[in-house]
Design a protein that fits this description.
The complex is a heterodimer of chains A (467) and B (431). In chain A, strand 10 (294-298) and strand 11 form a beta hairpin. Chain A has helices at 2-33, 45-48, 63-71, 142-152, 185-192, 217-221, 234-250, 256-260, 266-278, 332-339, 341-358, 386-404, 412-440, 442-448, 456-464; strands spanning 55-60, 79-85, 88-97, 110-113, 128-132, 160-167, 172-180, 198-202, 224-226, 294-298, 305-309. Chain A contains 15 helices and eleven strands. The radius of gyration of chain A is 26 Å and the shape is globular. Chain A has three domains: 45-181, no CATH class; 193-339, no CATH class; 340-467, no CATH class. Chain A is of the alpha+beta class and 467 residues long. Chain B has one domain (5-430): Porin (Beta Barrel). Helices cover 10% and strands 52% of the residues of chain B. In chain B, the strands form two sheets. Chain B has a 16-stranded antiparallel beta barrel. A two-stranded antiparallel ribbon of chain B has the order 12-13. In chain B, a hairpin with a 3-residue loop joins strand 4 and strand 5. The longest helix of chain B has 22 residues, at 5-26. Classes of the chains: A alpha+beta (467), B mainly beta (431). Chain A binds chain B through residues 31-35, 60-65, 68, 80-82, 91-92, 94, 116-119, 168-169, and chain B through 203, 206, 246, 266, 300-305, 364-366, 368-373.
């Protein structure tokens, strides 16, 4: 009778030994591989782009590499670095200087490629990340605010937050940076539920606005850098872009929408240029020097393409300008939209919709003491619009760090002046734009005054296809 | 394997030219020409014994050297950009060598197809006595038997990976060397401007003097009573030591097809090489092997400026040859019955196994990748080579090699990119 009991005990003993071995072995394996400290409960990228807080990002980089990176800031040389955020560390990522006109050795903007040295490595699910040096913006807010407006208007735009960046073993404070989502396959998947189409980043070379499109595919190759399908033939990559440009050139004004339907989502394009206009973006799709700052995505197995906004740190340039049709004369597509009564109405409606979405409600009285202005507004005071509240919120979030930024080229006075301008822009720009629109088509503004904001798509469709 | 009629015709034409010119060179190489009467050693004269030579009595001897070789290659490379399948005139090297006042030797050699770094051996050698010579100029550091063997004496179309990528190659320096104890001891020791051929990235603030010392000792400590198979054995040891400037100056590993399988890492400190070698030659048979280890310090090269474990690069090879036609194996093979002169030349079979690997000095801690990784994932390339060498005469050699490589990353065989086949046919003309 005792044998079965003994057997049970021996079996138990085996069980416990095995369990103990597994318990000892598993942690040692995870320590030994050591490549990714992220665990299954690691946060997602959403947490990094959570704009309700000011993040801290620590770039662990060799002092010599950091000095060389800053010295050779015009080069795209990668250097190895560990990236730490909220106690999570990704090892052996690659960092390089990013930007075009904003390149700086004093405060270098960075592109972080998590898989540069470790094939397939990701951080919070991201393959790469941009850290914007906010070099051209005393307020450090324009880029993030503009992207928020685009997303608010239903357009795909990168997620952004702000972070204090620390560098090196001494954890030197290197300034306030914008944490920017990179437009890549993950971005496409989130916005379009597909990611295998053709994505290009447009690089400005000279003023181009669809007029006189080149027949030479190399011309397009120099301007549209492929971000997917990079190794495909020149013809496969760029002939569809040439076809799009030719379609714009050839399309008659009265049939513009139908002619372009296979190539471009015109309603999205119109919304895009409307946001650009309201935000007084001099360097966007209808910029002073032609098209700029966008990605082009051509959908899987289709010729249809869509433009995606990029790099908005020059937005909010002027409170009074531009007028709705500014620069349309140097952009053939915008010119044809303006020439079409139906599409022009659609564009004007889009302008009004943007103003209603971001500005104070129509009819809100002017603020008497801007310097005493609070958002949200106390009872009895004029209501704050969404953009003004957003400026106030973000300003409060970054103010202390921005003023302490040791590498920004702007002083505290310029920062505060810039913020005051942004607040004023947020309060007054909508009214100014609606005034422009009312001078062109008073009916649109009158109709919009009684419509709630955020109904752009519905009303745009009604305008496009009136009964 | 090799495609293209034009490629084949170019190759054939080049081979024919080489054979014809060799025949033209061979003609004067007769026993009569070799026997020079003593009275002819006076005055200026032009001779053609092995190669064109100008002699001014006993004052000066000036020999002309020419080496030309062409390859038909089918090199395996995972990267399409370096995938080669082509006829290529690999080498066209001309030079002079000789003696001045019998004691002072000199050599000047230039590679005509290399515009960036054309000079090869450029040195003078003062021969005080056989056991004490001094060499100064630009020449190979005394390290690695395979690396210091001239291209004419190579048993394969490419040097071993270990010699190619771990040995220092040429540099400017001064060296004492000699043979002592009746060839029982051969020594070489010198100091050189930097660590050899590898270009070093040096930044002003971090510049250090990369002067390198190197030494090599080859022993044949045998007596006449030692059995002949043992007397045929030579054993050697070589070391180098020198500072490497801080920067991306680690050694780079390449495959036979010159595809990079281990890229440079950041190093700073001392680079030390140790190599052991053996050579055994008996009649028509030979065997040769080497093992090389290079250790690079990485002071302050961590991402947080901390010291990293030393980088350790290792390489070894072992090869054997057999002259089927029975000639005696030595540096330059002279066929008993040259081709087109009542014979077929000399035929030799050769085989080699070798490996080149890179990793860090410390075990455990997890491996990783990147130029500042504490424990770089160990990467290696093992190659097996089988070859046939056909010596048409003492000037012309045709070599054919087939190479199979097996690449590993962290002990894991790379499936799609790991197993590579390469084939090379080379025609070499050396005067």
């Amino acid at each position: 009778m005792s044998m079965p009991k003994l057997f049970v005990r021996v079996r138990d003993l085996r069980y416990w030994l095995c369990t103990a071995l597994v318990c000892v072995w598993l942690p040692s394996v995870s320590t030994a591989t050591g490549e990714s400290p992220m665990t299954s409960d690691a946060p997602e990228a959403d947490a990094l782009f959570d704009d309700s807080q000011l993040h801290d990002i620590w770039i662990h980089v060799n002092d010599r590499d950091w000095a060389q990176l800053r010295e050779g800031y015009r080069e795209n040389t990668y250097y190895p670095a560990d990236i730490e955020w909220q106690g999570h560390v990704v090892r052996n990522a690659g960092i390089r200087v990013r930007g075009r006109t904003s390149r700086s050795g004093q405060k270098p903007g960075l592109h972080v490629d998590f898989g540069r040295y470790v094939s397939g490595q990701r951080f919070l699910g991201l393959k790469s990340l941009d850290l914007d040096n906010l070099w051209q913006d005393p307020t450090m807010l324009r880029e993030r605010l503009a992207m928020l407006v685009f997303r608010r208007m239903g357009l795909p735009a990168p997620r952004e937050s702000h972070a204090r960046m620390f560098v090196g073993s001494g954890r030197e404070f290197a300034g306030v940076y914008g944490v920017i989502e990179v437009i890549d396959k993950q971005f496409l998947g989130r916005h379009f539920n597909e990611d295998d189409g053709y994505l290009y980043q447009y690089h400005w070379q000279d003023p181009f606005g669809f007029a006189n499109p080149s027949s030479n595919l190399d011309w397009y190759a120099a301007r549209f850098e492929p971000r997917t399908h990079e190794n495909e033939s020149t013809s496969a990559l760029f002939a569809p872009i040439r076809d799009l440009a030719r379609a714009v050139e050839d399309a008659p004004v009265e049939q513009l929408e139908e002619a372009l339907a296979p190539y471009l989502d015109l309603s999205t394009y119109i919304r895009h240029i409307a946001v650009d206009n309201v935000l007084s973006q001099p360097d966007g799709l209808v910029g002073n020097l032609g098209m700029s700052n966008f990605y082009l995505y051509r959908f899987e197995e289709r010729t249809l393409a869509q433009m995606i906004v990029w790099d908005q740190d020059l937005a909010f340039e002027d409170l009074e300008l531009p007028a709705p049709s500014k620069n349309f004369d140097i952009n053939l597509l915008a010119q044809k939209i303006w020439a079409s009564p139906e599409l022009r109405a659609m564009y004007l409606m889009a302008l009004v919709d943007v103003t209603l979405s971001i500005g104070p409600p129509a009819g809100t009285p002017e603020v008497e003491e801007p310097s005493q202005r609070q958002c949200p507004a106390p009872p009895g005071q004029p209501v704050c619009g969404w953009l003004e509240e957003e400026v106030s919120r973000e300003y409060a979030q970054i103010r202390e760090a921005a003023i302490a930024d040791p590498r920004t080229p702007y002083g505290p006075e310029q920062f505060e002046e810039g913020i005051e301008f942004l607040k004023r822009f947020a309060r007054e720009r909508s009214r100014i734009v609606r005034h422009y629109v009312s001078q062109i088509d008073p009916g649109i503004v009158a109709a919009s005054a009684v419509q709630p904001s955020g109904t752009l798509r519905t009303r745009s469709r009604q305008v496009r296809r009136p009964e | 394997m090799f495609s293209g009629k034009s490629t084949a015709s170019i190759f054939a034409a080049w081979s024919l030219c080489a054979v014809v010119s060799a025949q033209a060179q061979v003609e004067p190489n007769t026993p009569a020409a070799r026997e020079q009467p003593p009275e002819r050693e006076r005055g200026v004269r032009l001779e053609f014994d092995q190669r064109p030579s100008v002699r001014i009595g006993r004052l000066l001897r000036l020999d002309v050297r020419l080496t030309s070789q062409a390859d038909l290659r089918d090199l395996a490379s995972p990267s399409a950009s370096t995938n080669e399948d082509a006829f290529d005139l690999q080498r066209l090297r001309v030079g002079i060598e000789g003696t001045f006042l019998r004691k002072l030797e000199y050599q000047v050699e230039r590679e005509m197809r290399d515009s960036s770094d054309p000079w090869r051996d450029v040195f003078v050698n003062l021969r005080v006595r056989r056991a004490a010579e001094i060499r100064a100029g630009h020449f190979k550091l005394p390290f690695s038997l395979d690396q210091t063997t001239g291209s004419k004496g190579l048993d394969f179309t490419y040097r071993s990976l270990a010699a190619s990528y771990l040995a220092p190659g040429r540099d400017v320096g001064v060296m004492v060397h000699g043979d002592a104890l009746g060839n029982g001891v051969k020594y070489e020791a010198g100091v050189f401007r930097r660590g050899g051929k590898t270009p070093l990235a040096v930044t002003g603030a971090n510049a250090v003097n990369p002067r390198t010392v190197a030494g090599r000792l080859v022993l044949r400590p045998w007596t006449p009573s030692t059995p002949k198979p043992i007397r045929a054995l030579a054993l050697g040891l070589a070391v180098t030591s020198g500072r490497v400037p801080e920067g991306l100056n680690g050694l780079r590993g390449r495959t036979v097809g010159e595809d990079v399988f281990f890229d440079r890492v950041y190093v700073n400190g001392v680079r030390r090489r140790v190599g052991v070698e053996l050579q055994w030659r008996m009649g028509p048979v030979s065997a040769q092997g080497e093992a090389i280890r290079v250790r690079d310090e990485r002071r302050g090269q961590g991402i947080d400026n901390k010291d990293l474990p030393d980088m350790v690069s290792r390489g070894w090879y072992f090869n054997g040859t057999w002259l089927v036609t029975g000639e005696r194996k030595k540096g330059t093979i002279e066929p008993t019955r040259p081709f087109l002169r009542n014979g077929i030349g000399a035929l030799e079979l050769a085989g080699r196994i070798e490996e080149l690997s890179f990793g860090s000095d410390m075990a455990g801690g997890g491996s990783s990748q990147g130029p500042r990784a504490p424990h770089p994932s160990e990467k290696s390339d093992r190659a097996l080579t089988a070859g046939v060498n056909w010596y048409l005469n003492e000037f012309i050699k045709v070599q054919a090699d087939v190479v199979r490589e097996l690449r590993r990353d962290g002990g894991r065989v790379l499936d799609s990119r790991g197993r590579l086949w390469s084939r090379t046919v080379r025609v070499q003309f050396a005067l």
